[in-house]
Design brief:
The protein is α+β, with helices and mostly antiparallel strands. The protein is built from 3 helices and 3 strands; from the N terminus they run ααβββα. A 3-stranded mixed sheet has the order 2-1-3, with no helix packed on it. Strand 1 and strand 2 form a beta hairpin. It is globular and about 35 Å long.
Length: about 100
């Protein structure tokens, strides 16, 4: 059951670019401290030096199919659905997804 909740949370975060994209807007939500995970830790958006755009189509492929990030590098992941079917991006290791 934990893995379903984790996958759902990741899907919501990946698809929430419109709500997180309004950096100049004020909100009353308290900041959540980033937590270290096996695959990394959330970085400050202003620290991202490059954006990686993941494009998804209905042939169930991502473009690019892989990318490389240096240890300690902060990148912005931008997700584009170019198909008609809903897609999701899940971040994590197999161990954390199996929980």
């Amino acid at each position: 059951m934990k893995s379903i909740k984790f996958i759902a949370a990741c899907a919501l975060l990946a698809g929430a670019t419109a709500s997180f994209g309004h950096e100049n807007m004020h909100n009353n939500h308290p900041a959540v401290a980033p937590q270290q995970q096996e695959w990394g830790i959330a970085g400050e958006a202003k620290g991202a030096k490059r954006t990686i755009t993941l494009r998804m189509t209905d042939d169930m492929r991502f473009t690019p199919s892989h990318f490389t990030v240096k240890q300690g590098e902060t990148v912005r992941l931008r997700v584009e659905n170019k198909g008609q079917v809903m897609h999701e991006v899940v971040l994590g290791t197999q161990g954390t997804l199996d929980q």
